[in-house]
Amino acid sequence: MFETPAKVGVERLKKVLISDKHFNPERIKEVIKSDILYILKNYTDVEADDLNFDINVNNTGGYKIMLEASCSRLKFLGSIPE
Known about the structure:
The chain has one domain. About 40% of the residues lie in helices and about 15% in strands. It is built from 2 helices and 2 strands; from the N terminus they run ααββ. The chain has a two-stranded antiparallel ribbon with strand order 1-2. Strand 1 and strand 2 form a beta hairpin. The longest helix has 17 residues. The relative contact order is 0.15. The model has no long low-confidence stretch (mean pLDDT about 80).
């Protein structure tokens, strides 16, 4: 099926806008990872090497954040008042 120049242009523009979102500096990822690690350390014994964290851009331009953490134990927090 033949695509019109306008449709081709719209698709190209969409790809350009999505690719702009692919700019994901390592520094930002490290800051977010550090924040998540800080929170997890309140509840678990986890180290930075035990935390896998990545951010990807999907084909619609949204972000997919993947997080996997391994810890040796959960910290006992006591009971939560009702």
